Amino acid sequence: MYFSFETIQTFVVGFIVVYVIHWIKKPRLSENEPPMVPYKIPIIGHTIDFVFNADTFFSKCRKHYGDTFNLYVFSQVITIAGSEASQEIFKASDSFSLNEAVKDILPLHHVLPRVNGFDGTQHMAKMIREEITGNLSLYTGRMQEQLVISINKEIGDCSDPKVITSGQKFFSKIIARPMANIIVGEEISKHEDVVNTFANIAKGLGIFLVLPPFLSFIHPKIHQQVVTLPIRFGWNPIRKDINTLKNYLRPVLEKRLKDKEILGDKYKPPLDIIEFYLNEPGYGAKVITDEYLSYICEVLAQLIFGSVHTTARHIAGALYDFAGRPELWDDIYEEQAKIDKECNGVLAIEHVDRMVKLDSFMRESIRTFGDVAGIIHRCMEDSYTFKNNTTIPKDRIVYIYLNDSYYNKVYGPEPRSFQPYYGLNNKIPATKIDKNYYAFGAGKHACPGRFLAINEIKICMHKLILNYHIKTESGKINEKRYVGPFVLPPSTGIVFEDRKK
Fold it and tell me: Between the chain's N and C termini, which has fewer beta carbons within 10 Å?
């Protein structure tokens, strides 16, 4: 076979270019790091397995390389922390930062510049604990009322079976209504475009979560720069929604300030989040200016995204789990019918607490529908040494290997099987965090909104199960979808049919 000089020259140049790129992009490890899992393709490393085969791949790596190991993904080294190392990370809150890690994949500091993305989450957690969790019994009736309105509007009459196919997007619309009622109050949340705004904010900010960082093969920062380029030139995925909130908030906030001034101690503050912020040092105002409205709407956008996006995902997963398991239908329905009779159709917090079978089912759904790995952290110290004597350097991104906690021997010989009454039998509610259940994080940064989320999901499931026969369109358990190590609800159909009263 004959090769021309030009062909040989091109081959040599190409080889040199590939070699140089490989040398530049070759992972640099510091001393005593967790083991690097071998890979075959330079530059690409483990990216293909990470994106398309995370569950099986991580399981093999855990078996062969131990509790912590390194992968080379999108041209950067990441550390995967198993159940033992994960406990250390959650406890070492000064050594690791969730917020700094999230900025790489969810650059909200560009979208919400006044609050710098999620930098205000510590105060937000305080607000959720005091204002929402502390008043959960007062919010229960309002959540129920708003969820019933949503269900009637989005599902409605199903005397003829109706197929719903939009999964998480669909449930974002259902969850948006009660969250709007809690966050911006009863008066503002009556407007349909405000409810739509809550669903749109969850969707608009969620766009960043599904964009694979392919440009990170060149440099990790390039992906973030390119993704946020339209934002820095004026485009904002939620600008219209922010403006809608501002238009409705201004007259309400102005009236509240005026009423406070006139009524003094006789003023009765409404129970909602905007009233909390209006009185909170650093967040309140004596005059409602355009700048203040922009600022407070960015604060609310954080809260909306965290509450609507996550809750919709969990309720979608739970409904698919219920719809695909006919062996559970009668048992869980009977519990809901009994409670409905006891409360005469009007739930109070004590009735929600008595939904023990539904609560246990919810816990199992969240466990088995959870991400393979997630709750990413960035190492903030010059280096951090785990108890197993492996060390990672500053700025290293660490993924919590969630499946290593979800699927271990605590859950029996077949930990991947669906065990609907595990929580009930072991007296572990869906909100309780332990080393085998990191769905809501752990440590002092554990999600404070989990009590609201679980109650909201239980109320919604309670109403759906009472009113409809629910099954998957295929008649089988639908497979969950993966985006890398992250799980999405199926996109297949769920059939709703009215129960005969």
Answer: N
Q: Are 198 and 308 in contact (CB under 8 A)?
A: yes
Please report the beta strands in 61-138, taking only residues with DSSP state E, as ranges in sequence order: 68-73, 76-81, 96-97
How many Å apart are CA 399 and CA 244, to the nearest integer? 37
Rounded CA gap, 93 and 378, in Å?
Answer: 11
- Residue 21's pLDDT band, with cuts at 50, 70 and 90, is very low
Q: How far is CA 309 from CA 313, 323, 388, in A?
A: 6, 21, 36
CA nearest 175: which of 478, 464, 486?
Answer: 464
CATH value of 5-498 in 3.40.50.300, 3.40.50.2000, 1.10.630.10, 1.10.3720.10:
1.10.630.10
CA 184 – CA 275 distance, rounded (Å): 8
Give CA–CA dist 374/58, Å, rounded: 12
| Residue 447 annotated as part of some ligand binding site | yes
Question: Taking 50 as the threshold, does the pLDDT of residue 209 lie above it?
Answer: yes
Burial class (CB in 10 A: 0-12, 13-18, 19+), 466: middle
- Whole-prediction pTM value? 0.88
Sorted by where each begins, the domain ranges of the chain are 5-498
Nearest-angstrom CA–CA distance, 152 and 146: 10
Residue 402: what residue type? L
Q: What is the rounded CA–CA span in Å between residue 184 and residue 302?
A: 13
- Kindly list the strands in the beta sheet with 494-498, ordered across the sheet, starting from the edge strand earlier in the chain: 162-164, 494-498, 468-472
Q: How far apart are CA 297 and CA 31, in angstroms?
A: 46
| Mean pLDDT, residues 171-182 | 92
Cβ atoms of 90 and 442 within 8 Å: the answer is yes
Q: Find, among 428, 435, 430, 375, the residue nearest to 404 by Cα.
A: 435
CB atoms within 10 A of CB 425: 10
| Range list of β-strands (E), 291-444 | 374-379, 383-385, 391-393, 397-400
Task: Using the structure block, give the residue that is written with the tokens 């990370």.
Answer: 89
